Amino acid sequence: MSLKIEIEHFNRDKKELQDIARRNEPDFVDVEPDIDRIEQVKEQYEYQNLVVIGNGGSITSFRAFLYAFLNEAEKNVRLVTTMDPDYLNTLSDELDPEDTLVMPISKSGETVGVIESLLYFIDRDYEVCAVTSENDGALKQIVERNDYGYIEHQDVGGRFSGLTETALAPAAFAGIEVSEIRKGGEEMYEKLSPRKQYNPALNVASALYDTEQNGHDEIFAPFYSTRLFGFYPLFVQLMHETVCKEGEGQTVYGDMGPECQHHTNQRVFGGRKDVATMFFRCEAHEKTTLDIPDNLSDIDIRGRELSELQGQELKDSLEAEYQGVKDAMDEEDMPNITVQVDDVSHRSLGKLVAFMQYLAVYSAWIRGVDPFTQPDVEKSKEIGFEERF
Question: pTM of the prediction?
Fold first, then answer.
């Protein structure tokens, strides 16, 4: 299996799982993308640069795939999550409209920030292909009036749409292989189904709930892989927007490991004892070894000579940094979970998206809140919209 989960220093009380196991599968599991349609639409355009406009679930899953497979991407991809004029002007200075395709993504078609950024590019004669629902939203109306191409955003909430057209369309347009991503996700959906009573996502959700009941209101999520770090915003969104309502849920924050060891470890170990840690790491990295020049070999570093690092594989050094933090936590009986991806393949990362989605859903169900609403997000959107006028 390509995902390995380790749960340490939790009570492992499974009593909450009995009712969860009798629930139906969430609707997003049955939403199947039309990958052939995506490829057909893609062939209609010639471009070197791809600008993807979106907010929240319309872009977090795609960003995860983009960061993981950046070397595979055939296009120069830029993400737009803000209407900041400084950023938009920088993009338009760099990207020639003749070589650029703009892809706004919005299920409702009513996300005003997406529309505003799109209008900026329309005013400068950029070609557009949208991903939006077949409704009467503003984005769909813009598509129809300007005769732009579009791909249907199926009826699935943005943060749970990472294995549908919402993320797979921009990924395919960027040149990333998407069929294997989908296959991996489908395999993990089956493994994590509520029919499987003690599946990994449910076990992790139960452990996090248990530690929250014991006063751990925060989850620290360090990512020990540059290729996996794009999953950090997705993980935060899924957990916050799905679970944190009606006074329930834990705050999630994180950073790149081992960089975070130089600041946040002080908070985790030396601050209030209210943090559970959830490591994300990869077992497979490129093979790169250190070669110490002769003239540097006798330099002292922390009581050892640099020559002792001769032939050291950097992936082993990265693992040592992770293991040092984990061992320190284990010594102090601090709750921690490790999610390990054996390889950064398309299928494995499709599985990781499915795992995060189900983890969020189970976490909400255990706490008795609806996973598929975001009432406070909608309230702030409405206020922000009215402030424009």
Answer: 0.94
